[in-house]
From TrEMBL:
<keyword id="KW-0067">ATP-binding</keyword>
<dbReference type="InterPro" id="IPR013651">
    <property type="entry name" value="ATP-grasp_RimK-type"/>
</dbReference>
<feature type="domain" description="ATP-grasp">
    <location>
        <begin position="96"/>
        <end position="274"/>
    </location>
</feature>
<dbReference type="InterPro" id="IPR011761">
    <property type="entry name" value="ATP-grasp"/>
</dbReference>
<dbReference type="InterPro" id="IPR005479">
    <property type="entry name" value="CPAse_ATP-bd"/>
</dbReference>
<dbReference type="InterPro" id="IPR013815">
    <property type="entry name" value="ATP_grasp_subdomain_1"/>
</dbReference>
<keyword id="KW-0547">Nucleotide-binding</keyword>
<dbReference type="Pfam" id="PF08443">
    <property type="entry name" value="RimK"/>
</dbReference>
<protein>
    <submittedName>
        <fullName>ATP-grasp domain-containing protein</fullName>
    </submittedName>
</protein>
Amino acid sequence: MRLCFLVEEEYRHDGMPREVIAQLGAWGHTVDIVRPGRSLLPLSSALTAGDHDAWVLKTVSGGPGLTLLEAAAHTGLTTVNDVRAIRGVRDKALAAVIARTHGLPVPVTYAAARAEEFARIPEAEFPLVVKPADGSSGRAVRLVRDPGELTATDQAPATGLLIAQPYVPNSGTDLKVYSVAGELFATERRSPLHPGRAVRERCVPLSAEVARITAETGAAFGLDLYGIDVLFGPDGPVVVDINDFPSFRQVPDAVARVSAAVLRLARRGPGALTAAPLPLPVTVPAQPVVR
């Protein structure tokens, strides 16, 4: 197969996707790399020639790569993940609406262009977690304990949205659950809002409840390669973030698994928005989640 990877400069040296690209090449496939921030792409010919079996995106939220991937999909090319799924999770305000519409356990979410507007939220809902709607990798996430702290948290671009969600009380650790085309893996790690807590990142067993939530998230958004961040609050697990094509850290044989999944997804053809995970075995140990 011949694949095209759209890779932002921020990820050009990361194992995901650099090692995946190398693995695909070792398996005899041809992989072209386009760096949206550094490449000149002749749109009139490159996206209509049909030279690639699929395009794969590894980009920052809000980066130019998503537009190129959408252009490829518009011409009938296969994309990984599906562009509609990526757009749905890259905008955290939109993602919150999609998640709640599908009954997923996500916090109540407010949106505003300026952080000061969140002062109108009932004080009983404070503290709040405030972050850019187009943020990624925990950037600019702030814990706002009272309305008086809101001005200091306003770091969104002038044309961007912020979202605010009531803080979910938790132990200071969260669970990152990865889905590789239906195969699930969980990693326990320190919550970004608890920088002083010492937590060794490690693989942990995945409960049936969290496995179900993860699978339902993939189905709701149409994602195949994705991760979700889960906190355990007083009322049970809560999904606080969803990412397309994450790092897959701690996933056993991650490079081989992700590479094989990319090939399978590339072969499914264009426009096939996944309604449920592909029929790969789901790794769900019977033991309870370690918190």
